[in-house]
Amino acid sequence: MQRKLMWRWLLIGVVAAAAVYFMVPPDKKIKLGLDLKGGIHLVLQVNTGDAVRAEVDDAMERMRAELTGKGFAPEAMQRLEAGDGFKFKPVANTSDKVLDKAIDERLADFKVTRGVEIVAQVKPEVKRTIEDMAVRQGLETIRNRIDQFGVSEPVIQRQGLESNRIVVQLPGVDDPGRVKELIRSTAFLEVKPVVRVAPTEEALLATTGGQAPDDSQVVSGDLKGMDGRTTGKEYYLVKKASVITGRDLRTARRSQDQYNQPAVHFSLTPEGARKFGDYTAAHIGDRMAIVLDNKVHSAPNIKSRIDDSGIIEGGSFTVQSAEDLALVLRAGALPASITYLEERTVGPSLGRDSIVRGIRAGLFGLLMIVAFMLVYYKGAGVNAIVALVLNSVVLIGAMSMFKATLTLPGIAGIILTIGMAVDANVLIFERIREELDLGKTVRSAIDLGFARALSSIVDSNLTTIISALFLFQFGTGPIKGFAVSLTIGLTVSMFTAVFVSRAIFDLVLSRREKVTSLSI
Amino acid sequence: MRFLHNTSIRFMHYKWLWMGISTALIVASLLLITVGPGFKFGVDFSGGTQLTLKFKGEPDLGRIRKALEELGIGTVTIQRFGEVGEHDLLIRVQNPKQQEGDFAAPMLAALDREFNKEQSAIRLNLQGSEVITNALVEANPDEVGGTVSGKQAHYKPMADAILQVRKQKGLIEGPADLTGASAVSADVRTYLSQQARFGEFSLLAADNVGPLVGKDLQSKATYAVVFSLLGMLIYIWFRFQLQYGVGAIVALIHDTIIALGALSLTGREIDIPTIAALLTLIGYSVNDTVIIFDRIRENIRLQRGKPLTDTMDMAINQTLSRTIITSGLTELVVVSLFLFGGDVINTFAFVLMLGIIVGTYSSVYVASPIALFASNWIEQRRQARRRR
Questions:
Q1: Domains (range + CATH), chain A
Q2: Chain A residue at shortest CA distance from B231
Q3: Which pTM was predicted?
Q4: Residue B36 and residue B4: Cα distance in Å, rounded?
Q5: DSSP, res B94
Q6: Which positions in chain A touch B99 (Cβ < 8 Å)?
Q7: Domains in chain B and their CATH numbers?
Q8: Three-state SS sequence of A402-470
Q9: Contact yes or no for A365 and B337 at CB 8 A
């Protein structure tokens, strides 16, 4: 064998070995897309307006407390309709000094317009920061929650740097409904002092003229009989200011209450424990309400000082719902509500079905091609088939190496690539036949055939790669997979059809002394 | 063996006939698109929620429709999917008035209420393994003692085995299906056959595309098609000459319009994979065209002074066997995808199946004649300028 030819075969061997190395074992190395593996793809939007509104409400309450404390309780204090500010009327005798000081100290983040009414609006740059923080915190919370599902290789990322959208991909999830619910649940826990309890809202507010006082609010809860079943509703008047909230939690876990029913046990951060301890010590005998997402779960009497832990019970929990609540409490509350913009769920059975069918169709097509090539090109057909098999191996190896995701359209792309890889061989073989017809010797016919077919092969593959690149740029999930398999496939096919089949021809010819015929 | 050896068909001689046929096809396609059935957009572009469900028996479409219409989230369209006897359905609802949100969950809940009347904590065809595990922990049919975590460890493998059955079959029809899952203990099996709800259907897939994402997808698809056409034009212009680029692009537009017309005629849905198929068609068709152009360029160099019509005929004849073999083989593969590839990629395969035929034809009878006209036109202008 000639030296040069040996080097070429060595290179081919290395490429093939590398491809096999990267693809073995195939079920571990080949990353399947959600459409084949089953799973859920979600695009969700963090409603950042909620976070801005919460910030405005906070500032508004601080302002009210400040002015009320100084004896000038403001009037008609309310949030602006757009949600990004609030307005109020200072009482007539409000001292300018107090008002100036309060605005300076309490409303630094606001643009304040003074007149008969004082209007405070969040400064645009502050608003942007709040919104950005809300998305980041949302991302963090969702990541924490998903980490606890035990999903392997989840994708959780912001869509673009500035956007308020988050993309979540969870392969192999078997209960998409529950996952969506858990991601979205706000799980906002508050412990609030109870002022009064009554069976109806009217009765509750009878003594205060049908309206809750400024510092209080009405929250409802289920009324339970002795056996734990819900028998009706109860209404609670609670203070707006919480003793502790979900932010003060260190951790939470599923546990059992005194009747051996599922419950959620939580413990507090040092600061939360101090607040809770101080409050409970000072209010022994009073009731406090454990409020979750604006619903009272229980309202126990404070029997003694409680320091660093508590229990949420009476929610008619099941083992599952207690576990879910503990999970979201541990992961933290979402800073704003969430809206789902897009969902793609593929059940595992559909994905499995798609793989089986796709591969079956591919193998059938491949067999037809093999049969044709052998009949039509005889000896050279074997050459083409070797190149084709190598093409498939290197393609799958390259996809594993680049960690490309195989999707259903991707399988179609591979099958199509195989069809197009044959094209290169056909171009070359037809050209060799032509040259032989012109009376050229076998060696020069092969030389010319390869040389002249080359520009056609490169041009035709490059044009297809151009459209594949645009598909990759603008496509989503499964389609990206198609573009990737097509691009890798076409690149590989140029290598196998031009380089490998040439090497095979040369190998065959190098064994023969005088070449007068070619099986083509 | 050799087909089409040494042919000398005067392709360009018949150009007016075939260009007339092409024009007729384009007009027909445009009529189909604008006047006729028009496009049927899938969820990707029209927005909305689509559930793919597998039913145990022949589903009562009236009940499905009624249950979903009570939700007040728009008109319900129901379509069969997959093979007959599989009882798979596509159920689609237009999301209410440009509203964002998760509509799959309420739809599933409504169907669950309608079709799965018996109450049970365990719903084998709708829940995941964790939920089934915890429900078994509470029922505790094996009477395992100890902590909740210990019980979870006991029941988890059983729940996994049950889900494996669902993955294989798509739907657990009844207690008989569970006998295959050997990890499930006899007591649990008895308990499940008495207490669990097998239900009438299982969820194969759910797609929900809100208006914002729908708009994104539309503009992305348009950009992808427009930019690839531009990319091709520039590439061919650069590698050949402008007149060939024009010929190739006209052929591509011809192919795309006819493919769209066929989609409209057959009432197939246009979705993201359909756009991918159109782009592949564009790539394939240009591939074919380039090979003929390549040969034309070579022949022009070899035989200066010969009329371009003859040079083109020669090039098409020389590449004819390759054209037929390659198109035939690729078509074979795509037909195999179309027949055996399953419903999910059926439209994709359909577009390619048609596209390969149209793309091959258009390389000969659209791209080449247009390039010929463009060349002649440029030549005439050059001569006119010289005369002046």
A1: 3-36+347-510 (1.20.1640.10), 48-124 (3.30.1360.100), 185-320 (3.30.1360.200)
A2: A466
A3: 0.83
A4: 40
A5: P
A6: none
A7: 11-43+210-387 (1.20.1640.10), 47-208 (no CATH)
A8: CCCEECHHHHHHHHHHHHHHHHHHHHHHHHHHHHHHCCCCHHHHHHHHHHHHHHHHHHHHHHHHHHHHH
A9: yes
HSE-up of residue A49 (Cα within 13 Å, Cβ side): 9
In chain B, which residue's Cα lies nearest the Cα of A486? B280
Distance CA B315, CA B288 (A): 13
Q: Hey, what are B376's tokens? A: 């002649």
DSSP class of residue B36 equals S
Confidence tier at B95 by pLDDT (50, 70, 90): confident
Does any CB of chain A come closer than 8 Å to the CB of residue B220? yes
Q: Which of A473, A422, A490 is nearest to B231 (CA)?
A: A473
CB-CB under 8 Å, B126 with A463:
no
Interface touch A318/B169, C-beta < 8 Å: no
Q: How far A330 CA lies from chain B's nearest CA (Å)?
A: 18
**Torsion angles phi and psi, residue B123, rounded to 5:** -120, 95
Cβ contacts below 8 Å, chain A against chain B, sum to 271
Distance CA B327, CA A87 (A): 73
Partners of A262 on chain B (C-beta within 8 Å) are: 148
**Which residues on B lie below 8 Å from A354 (Cβ)?**
342, 344-345
DSSP conformational letter for A246: G
Say yes or no for a CB contact (<8 Å) between A320 and B134.
yes
Nearest CA of chain B to the CA of A150: how many Å? 11
Interface test with B, best of A165, A356, A467 (most B CBs within 10 A): A467
Distances (CA, A) of B46 to A287, A476, B210, B271: 54, 16, 9, 9
Per-residue pLDDT of B198-212, as tens digits, reads 888 889 999 999 988
Q: Which of B129, B326, B345 sits opposite A409 (nearest CB)?
A: B345
Contact B169 A349 (CB under 8 A): yes
ipTM over 0.95: no
Q: Which own/partner pairs from A411-414 qualify as long-range (CB within 8 Å, at least 24 positions apart)?
A: A411/A36, A411/A354, A411/A355, A411/A358, A411/A359, A411/A362, A411/A485, A412/A358, A412/A482, A412/B337, A412/B341, A412/B345, A412/B348, A412/B349, A413/A481, A413/A482, A413/A483, A413/A484, A413/A485, A413/A486, A413/A489, A414/A362, A414/A485, A414/A489
Looking at per-residue pLDDT, the higher value among A458 and B5 belongs to A458
Alpha-carbon distance B342 to B347, whole Å?
Answer: 10
pLDDT in tens, A107-158: 888 999 888 888 999 999 999 999 999 999 999 999 988 888 778 788 999 9
- Look-up: residue for tokens 């009765």? A203
DSSP letter for A287, please: B
Which of A411, A474, A520 to mutate to probe the B interface, most B CBs <10 Å?
A: A474
Residue of A nearest to B223 (CA): A474
User: Mutate which of A370, A462, A470 to disrupt the B interface (most B C-beta within 10 Å)?
Assistant: A470
Query: Nearest by CB to A361, which of B102, B127, B336?
Result: B336
Q: What gap in Å lies between CA B333 and CA A362, rounded to an integer?
A: 7
Q: Which of residues 57-76 of B touch A (CB under 8 A)?
A: none
> Which CA distances in Å does A353 have to A390, A399, A484, B167, B270?
27, 22, 22, 10, 22
Please check whether residue B107 is in contact with residue B188, taking contact to mean a CB–CB distance below 8 angstroms: no
* Cα-based angle B282, B283, B284 (whole degrees, multiple of 5): 95
Residue of A nearest to B105 (CA): A177
A497: Cβ contacts below 8 Å, ≥ 6 apart: A387, A391, A421, A424, A425, A428, A457
Q: How confident is the model at residue A1 (pLDDT cuts 50, 70, 90)?
A: low
Tokens in use for B6?
């040494």
CA nearest to A429 within chain B: B322
